[in-house]
TrEMBL record:
InterPro entries per record: HotDog_dom_sf (IPR029069), MaoC-like_dom (IPR002539), NodN-like (IPR039375)
Signal peptide: none
Superkingdom assignment: Bacteria
Organism: Sphaerisporangium rufum
Record's protein name: MaoC family dehydratase
Family according to the record: Belongs to the enoyl-CoA hydratase/isomerase family.
UniProt xrefs under Pfam families: MaoC_dehydratas
Domain MaoC-like span(s) in chain numbering: 12-115
Lineage of producing organism: Bacteria, Bacillati, Actinomycetota, Actinomycetes, Streptosporangiales
Length: 151
């Protein structure tokens, strides 16, 4: 984890890569719980028998499940001292270039794209890439926006 002493130090690191998180395995239980939470029970996610004969050879995680991991991944990558609250501000661009097979391991890496002050706090934009072990294409590439509040 990279720890920044201040917002100014974070801003000075614009353009730098923050490294990678540890690998974590995606389980069928996670996929099923995500399906229940979102109402997306498409067979490619939840029907292991049918999915074996499908285009991916087994069940895959929802793209939005991968995306929903961004906050926990970024919390593993960096912290800024003096920030009392970080709020998800949005996304500028999201792509899902490759599926995440259930049972695969994923990790994230991030690059600091921009850091700028606003009256509400500091906007931080990160390019986050979620990789799948032993897979050439990433599962998700997203420009994630956060509002960092101090004091």
């Amino acid at each position: 984890m990279r720890i920044f002493a201040s917002i100014d130090e974070l801003k000075a690191a614009t353009g730098e890569h923050l490294g990678h998180t540890p690998w974590r395995r995606i389980t069928q239980e996670q996929v099923d719980l995500f399906a229940d939470a979102t109402g997306d029970h498409q067979w490619i996610h939840v029907d292991a028998e049918r999915a074996k004969a499908g285009p991916f050879g087994g069940t895959i995680a929802h793209g939005y499940l991968s995306l929903s991991l961004l906050p926990s991944f970024t919390q593993e990558l960096y912290r800024v001292e003096g920030v009392t609250m970080g709020v998800n501000y949005g996304l500028n661009k999201v792509r899902f270039p490759a599926p995440v097979p259930v049972g695969a391991e994923v990790r994230a890496g991030a690059e600091i794209l921009s850091v700028r002050g606003t009256p509400a706090g500091t906007h931080c934009a990160l390019k986050v890439t979620i990789e799948v072990a032993d897979q050439a294409k990433p599962a998700c590439v997203a420009e994630s926006l956060s509002l960092l509040v101090t004091g």
